[in-house]
Amino acid sequence: xxxxxxxxxxxxxxxxxxxxxxxxxxxxxxxxxxxxxxxxxxxxxxxxxxxxxxxxxxxxxxxxxxxxxxxxxxxxxxxxxxxxxxxxxxxxxxxxxxxxxxxxxxxxxxxxxxxxxxxxxxxxxxxxxxxxxxxxxxxxxxxxxxxxxxxxxxxxxxxxxxxxxxxxxxxxxxxxxxxxxxxxxxxxxxxxxxxxxxxxxxxxxxxxxxxxxxxxxxxxxxxxxxxxxxxxxxxxxxxxxxxxxxxxxxxxxxxxxxxxxxxxxxxxxxxxxxxxxxxxxxxxxxxxxxxxxxxxxxxxxxxxxxxxxxxxxxxxxxxx
Length: 320
Known about the structure:
Blueprint: E1 9-14, H1 20-28, E2 33-37, H2 61-74, E3 77-79, H3 94-99, H4 106-112, E4 123-125, E5 140-146, H5 149-158, E6 162-168, H6 171-196, H7 199-205, H8 219-238, E7 247-251, H9 252-257, H10 259-270, H11 276-283, H12 300-310
Parallel strand pairs: 1-5, 1-6, 2-5, 6-7
Antiparallel strand pairs: 3-4
Helix pairs in contact: 5-8, 6-8, 7-8, 8-12
């Protein structure tokens, strides 16, 4: 890890459509955090070429070295996926607080790139005049990386300074949100075909070898495949509870029911100070991503039946 920024960082792990954005927002209220959103999804990112996100047997020393190298530079970079308007940060100069939000505009980056002021369009290194370098060692990097349990497992083992926040949503509610985002909006078949490549190995992990029956992209198969993915990723992350001082499980419903209390748990676990100003910011956070009820045609009976079947012997069954 970079000596400039210290060796301690926070990983938000889980699956999308589960409230991970809200966890990122909670941590972004701190003046001491550098919050990066889905850096592995950025075109050309140093995270993007690492691969081996799901299965630990695919993740070897080469991938670990590449991941640690990417993490070491992540706090000094930004992308348009990040919350560039969150500028009340101790490590930003006055110029940085004014300029950083402007860099979220594509046309601005296109102008600055040819001038040599930015080293990339999709992701770029923060120009030095925007940073108060003497305060960088106190900054805490926060990475939201969904669907990467093999990465989380390797980092929990290799980096004592890594704190893992496992974000999870009850399966039925997760499926409703997933269905609206990826199936009802017409992109479900492409998503299914991409995910199905992993299904034989996921099922084999649970002692099953019947992936062929799920190959046809009908609604029941779409839902069951996603449930097996949900179970595999979340059980893999839950196994990291063995690193009890470095792992914290937070459910979507817990945060929804008690946002201030959940935020206090997060700040205590990550050893970040929480002052009154930050507490006020947290109380004002809104659940903007899921504020409207889902308009879904996903059959509730089908969903309930498959949840019971797939999670029959799962330690996550308590979330049903």
